[in-house]
Amino acid sequence: MAKRGLELLLMVLLGAIVIFLSIRYGEKEYKVEDIEFQADSIHHQYAYGIIIDSLILYKDKIRKNEFLADILQDYGVDYARIDHLARKSKSVFDVRRMRAGNTYIVISTRDSLHEVQFFIYESSAHEYIVYELKDSISIYKGKKEIRRIISTDCGIIQSSLWNSMVDKGTDPNLANELSEIYAWAIDFFGILEGDRYKVLYEKLFVDGQYIGLGEVIAAMFKHYDREYYAYRFLQDSVWDFFDDDGGSMRRTFLKAPLRYKRISSRYSHSRYHPILKIRRPHRGVDYAAASGTPVHAIGDGVVTFTGWKGQGGRTVKIKHNGTYSTAYLHLSGYGDAIVKGASVTQGQVIGYVGKSGLATGPHLDFRFYRNGQPIDPLKVESPPAKPIDSTYQDTFILYRDSLRRILDTIGEIQI
Predict the structure, then answer these.
(1) Residue 224: is it exposed, middle or buried by C-beta count within 10 angstroms (0-12/13-18/19+)?
(2) d(Cα 178, Cα 219) in Å, to the nearest integer?
(3) Domains, the chain, with CATH or none
(4) pLDDT tens for residues 184-230?
(5) For the chain, what percentages of helix, strand and coil (3-state, to nearest 5) are there?
(6) Which among 131, 128, 132, 130 is positioned nearest to 143, based on CA atoms?
């Protein structure tokens, strides 16, 4: 009886969440379309929005070093018409960007001429370009309908979050999504064996095939015996993640500026320098990482310096506000458009790990300043982003409580 009660509770809560999401997203739940047999009320058959009652469909994949001309000439389309099509297509889609392995469809008449009427190229799992080759050439983009399925996952960490998901057959990209949500609170290179997670999220399907993750709706991550809950909520037309108290899961600064293997040297007032063989202050944290590893701005700001900075080698400095600034040393190169005066956003790639300047190996020397004075980056308490406004407080509490009850049942009842 207890299990049946939990099942009924979960069904009711999921129904409420689906209704809420359909209102918030402004989207319907899509039906899977079958390109061979989709039919309307008067029994027309459709594919890619085209009535195909009297037509024949040929479906194949683009092979390596195969181009549009190679494909269409095999179906009897003359080169002059193909050239005209390619030229006219440039404003919609450059046919030179067609990739090997992607699907294409050729639709021709059913008579003895087999004259090509349409060519469709699937640029992604749900996007396509239609080339109409009738009396006049017409080119336009289209999208297949996507079905969103709410799913759950949970697990106990043995080595890493990524491995935990791979071992269970879960899309490992979900690990990346969680690491983004919890970027300010949890160092995912420092998670412990026995840490736990639960997550409510969307899976996306096209033509009945799984194409990837949708949105994470809610999650719980237990780290150092503390449970971190996160709920995706729409406020002022912007989606964000909030904790149990309605505080934003984002912070002004990320926990770390890159994915690193280990901290090779910490902030110190007296560190023995491995090259100079002397003791002197080290006003930053050294993150050991492979050369070329992307380095991200830990917060929004303006670049105040890019260039060679003595023993620090290639360096980028960013002013985040009137109080805080950061510096990134020993880079091998800079991110796109990272020049003095450029505005950067949190998470933007501003450079790449290297060993320029005085360095024994590739690493990032990351430095943090408050009012111009260096402070230990690992001890910075970052102020939170905008919390739930009082206008949304009651709605958020109801939504949070519903999601919390679902998260707490994950692992007891699988959806």
Answers:
(1) exposed
(2) 8
(3) 1-32+146-250+395-415 (3.10.450.350), 38-143 (3.10.450.350), 262-379 (2.70.70.10)
(4) 778 776 788 899 999 999 999 998 899 999 999 999 999 988 999 99
(5) 20, 40, 40
(6) 128
- Over residues 116-150, the pLDDT tens digits come to 999 999 999 999 999 999 888 899 999 999 999 99
Question: Is there a contact between 314 and 363 (Cβ–Cβ < 8 Å)?
Answer: no
Q: What pLDDT does 32 receive?
A: 29
Please tell me what DSSP assigns to residue 45: E
Spatial CB neighbours of 97, under 8 Å, sequence gap ≥ 6: none
Confidence of residue 340 (pLDDT cuts 50, 70, 90): very high
Long-range contacts of the stretch 125-133 (C-beta < 8 A, 24+): 125/206, 125/209, 125/211, 125/212, 126/206, 126/211, 128/48, 129/89, 129/92, 129/93, 130/48, 130/49, 130/50, 131/85, 131/89, 133/77, 133/81, 133/85
Extract the tokens encoding 131. 């080339």
Q: What percent of the chain has pLDDT over 90?
A: 55
Confidence of residue 25 (pLDDT cuts 50, 70, 90): very low
For every residue of 276-321, DSSP letters joined together read: T-SEEEE-SEEEE--TT-EEE-SSSEEEEEEEE-GGG-EEEEEE-S
Looking up tokens 């994470």, which residue turns up?
216
Rounded to whole angstroms, the Cα distance separating 18 from 26 reads: 12
> 172 and 166 in contact (C-beta within 8 Å)?
yes
pLDDT (tens digit per residue) in 264-299: 565 555 554 565 555 556 778 888 888 999 999 999
The overall pTM is greater than 0.90: no
Structural contact between residues 124 and 90, judged by C-beta atoms closer than 8 angstroms: no
Scan for tokens 């640029």, then name that residue. 123
Alpha carbon 227 to chain centroid, angstroms: 24
How far is residue 90's CA from residue 85's CA, in Å, rounded to a whole number?
A: 9
Please give the Cα distance from 265 to 272 (Å, whole number). Answer: 10
Of 341, 264, 357, 254, the C-alpha closest to 298 is 254
